[in-house]
From TrEMBL:
<feature type="compositionally biased region" description="Low complexity">
    <location>
        <begin position="440"/>
        <end position="463"/>
    </location>
</feature>
<feature type="transmembrane region" description="Helical">
    <location>
        <begin position="123"/>
        <end position="143"/>
    </location>
</feature>
<keyword id="KW-1133">Transmembrane helix</keyword>
<protein>
    <submittedName>
        <fullName>Uncharacterized protein</fullName>
    </submittedName>
</protein>
<feature type="transmembrane region" description="Helical">
    <location>
        <begin position="149"/>
        <end position="169"/>
    </location>
</feature>
<feature type="transmembrane region" description="Helical">
    <location>
        <begin position="75"/>
        <end position="99"/>
    </location>
</feature>
<feature type="region of interest" description="Disordered">
    <location>
        <begin position="435"/>
        <end position="463"/>
    </location>
</feature>
<keyword id="KW-0472">Membrane</keyword>
<feature type="transmembrane region" description="Helical">
    <location>
        <begin position="49"/>
        <end position="69"/>
    </location>
</feature>
<feature type="transmembrane region" description="Helical">
    <location>
        <begin position="15"/>
        <end position="37"/>
    </location>
</feature>
<feature type="region of interest" description="Disordered">
    <location>
        <begin position="318"/>
        <end position="342"/>
    </location>
</feature>
<feature type="region of interest" description="Disordered">
    <location>
        <begin position="373"/>
        <end position="408"/>
    </location>
</feature>
<keyword id="KW-0812">Transmembrane</keyword>
Length: 745
């Protein structure tokens, strides 16, 4: 090996200049060839140049790792060759995987340009971590401060160049983001305007909605200082857009509905309800064809075109009203006048949730025929009305009489529909079939069909006395109101037959979900009762050892389709608690089904469960008798029966009786029972004397003293089992004296 080194050194001294010249010429030739190849192939040189510069920088970093491996770690050179470039190899692997992930997640156009940029994935951060760690490790071995900066800058520069070149077309935003990034904090504090990031815009809108809802509740509750919270709410209201306002009103209404469900008797606050403009409501669309002539006589002279009879079906004409409404609201109740706010939005109270028993459908031929016939409202109904109907005022839109004066309202009884009408919503509900009133009584009968209208002739309008909402009287001398006249050209919905009667348990309104899904409701308990009977058919006491997790899951999936209203999760919970109770394990259930769980099954005699129950009973008995207070066996049996639920009462009483007799030193009849090994050893009432203890344990104590040369009180207590320290000291003194006498003799 030495001769080879000498030959290489001699060759280098003689031909060093020639070798350098040949190497330079070869490099120039390769560079020219590479340039010609790149020009002909039309391939960009930027990736190749970037890879070349990255490898040169990695060589500089690898040289620092070589110095650490040789000088600091004192590794053999053969081993150092294998491990000095471990960081560089890992860095190149991580960057290649990240680039592959970016290209795989990117979407390209046919010409090769990036349409939707991808994301490098977690390998991006791994490559950054490797570059940072290698730079710190290499810089820690540097001598000067300049070299430390150089060693730290090289890996960081390599990583930043690679990342910038890879994501030159952009980078897709990941779903997971930092909740408190510098950009988010700057936007939250008002230092940044989110004009190009939809995520920041959405976050600002959500925060403004949440702030307006909270400040509204603070203002409504009179929170101190009230002017401060009102000004905060006004500040947000000035800059809030229409979507933000709609979201705030919806959240306030939803909060009130949830509070009505959870705390029915809580203090209610005024919840704003956005009332749409009359031109936007369905009722306004129905009334769009109405005309209000300036001269009634002229309109009648034209043939009554503006007051022609309109056919209105007796089925309910439903008008959608923004905001929550009670299902039992009666349109026939008097309207409560609520002044509209200056902004055009009526401030209304959300109706509380009421549980009303649904009325059964009545199959009455006369009612059915009356519901199918249309109600004719017009100027020609006066001939068929009779003289009695001319003197009766008819209410329209909460107004009675010919002058349209507001009808008297009952305090606190106005519904959402009535308050919306009074606020200017322009809603005209005309329900005609029987329903349920606010107080739970059946509503009025459907409107009977009126006779056909006469061709012409001024007369008083016919009264509609039995309908929840009746038409106003129309005469030739009075102008026709748009709210009381329906044009003949207006679209009239077809008569829909009454739906089939639904059972009471499914039709009871409960708010957000069916009544059968509310834990503790009567219908929910009926479903749990059916489930308990099905589980009792599937599980017996003999099946308890086999009811593992797989069997329980299989049984839950089998029974869940039979009680779909409960759900598979509730079924699985019930099965687990059913098995635990049947096995004697008391569980604290979160559902009110304690009365559907079974009693603990009695364990067969001499079985594993039976012996386990006996051990639990003996443990409870030892804890009860630990204070030394004697108790009657009958009282102990009554007291400790819950500790062994799978044992029958007779077995518990016999075991406790035998245990107490064994403690007192008497011969127990249970010695022939299977629990004989669980009974305690007899304990004498009179403590053993020193002579008895020396006779039994003296030899052992003397041998211990002779072998070790010392005898402690704790050793005496451990061997003899006595607890008295005075008696242990006496026995120790006796043993030491006898040992001394034996030694002197």
């Amino acid at each position: 090996m030495k001769q080879l080194n000498d030959l290489v050194a001699g060759f280098w001294q003689d031909y060093a200049a020639l070798v350098l010249l040949a190497g330079g010429l070869l490099g120039v030739v390769l560079l020219i060839s590479f340039a010609i190849w790149a020009r002909r192939s039309q391939k960009p040189l930027r990736p190749i140049a970037l890879a070349f510069s990255m490898n040169l920088a990695l060589l500089l970093n690898a040289e620092g790792m070589w110095v650490i491996a040789i000088d600091q770690l004192k590794l053999p050179k053969i081993f150092a060759v294998l491990v000095f470039a471990v960081f560089e190899i890992c860095f190149l692997t991580a960057t290649s995987l990240a680039a592959e992930q970016y290209r795989r997640t990117s979407t390209y156009a046919p010409d090769g340009t990036v349409v939707t940029p991808g994301h490098p994935g977690p390998m991006l951060w791994i490559a950054a971590l490797i570059a940072g760690l290698s730079g710190v490790i290499v810089a820690s071995n540097a001598v000067t401060f300049t070299e430390k900066l150089l060693r730290l800058a090289v890996p960081c520069m390599i990583f930043l160049m690679w990342w910038a070149a890879l994501t030159a077309a952009g980078q897709r935003v990941r779903r997971g983001r930092f909740a408190y990034s510098p950009r988010r904090l700057a936007e939250r504090w008002g230092w940044l305007i989110p004009d190009d990031d939809p995520d920041l815009v959405r976050m600002a809108a959500d925060r403004q909605v949440r702030r307006m809802v909270v400040n509204y509740h603070r203002v409504s509750a009179g929170r101190f200082p009230k002017p401060w919270w009102r000004n905060r709410l006004l500040k947000d209201a000035r800059t809030a857009g229409e979507p933000v306002v709609d979201e705030v009103i919806e959240q306030l209404a939803r909060i009130q509905r949830v509070m009505d469900l959870l705390v029915p008797g809580a203090v209610r606050i005024a919840v704003p309800v956005r009332t749409p403009a009359p031109a936007e409501t369905p009722a306004a669309a129905v009334l769009a064809g109405l005309t209000t002539p300036a001269d009634p006589e002229r309109s009648l002279a034209d043939g009554g075109a503006s007051t022609s009879a309109a056919t209105v079906p007796s089925a309910p004409l439903t008008a959608s009203i923004a905001g929550p409404a009670s299902p039992s609201a009666s349109p026939s109740s008097p309207a409560a006048s609520v002044p509209a706010s200056p902004s055009g939005q009526a401030v209304q109270f959300v109706e509380p949730v009421q549980f009303v028993q649904p009325a059964a459908a009545v199959a009455d031929p006369e009612v059915a025929s009356g519901a199918a016939e249309p109600v004719t409202v017009g100027s020609g109904t006066a001939d068929a009305a009779g003289p009695a109907g001319a003197n009766e005022p008819v209410a329209v839109n909460g107004r009675s009489g010919a002058n349209g004066a507001p009808a008297p309202a009952v305090p606190g009884r106005a519904t959402v529909v009535e308050r919306t009408i009074a606020a200017g919503g322009g809603v005209l509900p005309i329900p005609a079939q029987r329903g349920v009133t606010r107080d739970g009584a059946a509503g009025p009968a459907p409107v009977p069909s009126l006779p056909a209208a006469a061709p012409a002739g001024p007369a008083s309008a016919a009264p509609v006395s039995a309908a929840p909402v009746s038409a106003a009287p129309v005469s030739a001398a009075s102008p026709v109101s748009p709210a009381a006249t329906v044009s003949a050209a207006a679209p009239v919905p077809a008569v829909v037959p009454a739906p089939a009667a639904t059972p009471a348990w499914a039709a009871t309104p409960t708010g957000a979900r069916p009544a059968v899904s509310i834990a503790g409701s009567p219908w929910w308990r009926l479903a749990v009762d059916r489930l308990s009977k099905m589980v009792a058919e599937e599980i017996t006491a003999d099946d308890l050892p086999e009811m593992n997790y797989m069997r329980r899951t299989e049984l839950a999936r089998k029974l869940a389709p039979r009680v779909q209203e409960l759900g598979e999760g509730v079924v699985r919970t019930f099965i687990n608690e059913y098995i635990s109770e049947l096995d004697g394990e008391h569980v604290e259930s979160a559902y009110p089904w304690r009365d559907f769980l079974p009693s603990p099954a009695l364990a067969p005699v001499d079985s594993d469960a039976w012996h386990k129950a006996l051990l639990d009973l003996r443990t409870a008995l030892e804890e009860e008798l630990g204070d030394g207070t004697p108790l009657d066996p009958e009282e102990l049996a009554d007291l400790l029966a819950p500790s062994a639920p799978r044992l029958d009462e007779a077995t518990i009483r016999r075991f406790i009786g035998d245990y107490v007799l064994a403690l007192s030193g008497m011969s127990a009849p249970g010695s022939a029972q299977p629990w004989a090994e669980l009974l305690p050893r007899p304990q004498s009432v009179r403590p053993a004397s020193d002579e008895d203890l020396l006779e039994m344990h003296g030899a052992e104590l003397f041998e211990h003293l002779r072998s070790t040369g010392r005898l402690s009180r704790y050793k005496v207590q451990a061997v003899t089992g006595i607890k008295s320290r005075v008696q242990a000291d006496r026995i120790k003194s006796i043993i030491e004296e006898r040992a001394a006498e034996t030694a002197t003799a």
